[in-house]
Amino acid sequence: xxxxxxxxxxxxxxxxxxxxxxxxxxxxxxxxxxIGCDPKADSxxxxxxxxxxxxxxELIKKKGEALTLEEMVTxxxxxxxxxEAGGPAPGLGCAGRGIIAAMxxxxxxxxxxxxxxxxxxxxxxxxxxxxxxxxxxxxxYAEKVFVVTSGENMAIHAAANIAAAVANFRSRGYxxxxxxxLNRRNVPREExxxxxxxxxxESRVVGALSFSPVxxxxxxxxxxxxxAFPDSPMAEEYxxxxxxxxxxxxx
Length: 251
Description:
The protein is an alpha/beta fold. It has one domain: Rossmann fold (3-Layer(aba) Sandwich). Helices cover 42% and strands 18% of the residues. The protein has helices at residues 14-27, 56-63, 69-72, 96-108, 111-115, 135-138, 153-170, 190-200, 213-220, 225-228, 233-249, and strands spanning 2-8, 32-37, 74-75, 81-84, 119-125, 144-149, 176-183, 205-209. Strands 3-4-2-5-1-6-7-8 form an eight-stranded mixed sheet, sandwiched between helices. Helix 1 (14-27) crosses helix 11. The chain starts with a strand and ends with a helix. Belongs to the NifH/BchL/ChlL family. One of its GO terms (molecular function) is 4 iron, 4 sulfur cluster binding. This is Nitrogenase iron protein. Keywords: 4Fe-4S, ATP-binding, Iron, Iron-sulfur, Metal-binding, Nucleotide-binding, Oxidoreductase. Its cofactor is [4Fe-4S] cluster.
């Protein structure tokens, strides 16, 4: 089983990237689970056709020990198993709490033993790498971390901070940085700036995605690109990225 955490600045396209990688893995014959680790609970929305699902934190509050695994996990496109950790309303608590509670409850309900996924993808907000947001790395849930960025300065700054946090955990025997994913915004010197970032954090650019209207069109349908436009060049870009991510996990 490969265990991946995908981090990135809010709004950088991290969840879109994660969902399309999950879809590509699933279509290649893998059993995939995607766990959203963001209080907005929108990581898996395009895998589920836009349908709302209760978060693990909401279910814990409502059902307590009566909560079942099937209530926490919802099948989505291509059979991807979807879960959303959830979190408190803005300004009302620690966002990392939802991640911690979700991870503990999924483990308690033996999610990985029962579903036996070939790949687990944790989609994690990366603006702040606090104790809660670092749970997928710190507790050994993820083995490889991939950071999504564009060539925009704030995205690169966030990516550098995430990479530094991963380096700190690596020294303790936790997850390692698998690489940087360029999600283009067509800003000046974009590829050069992201290549410099990768070199600075002693990593590499594992894949690059075009800035394409097809992505937005798919999201308007609440679908992944692989579902909405399976024969498009953009869908093939996501498939190639998935192949490269998978290869990096074997190194």
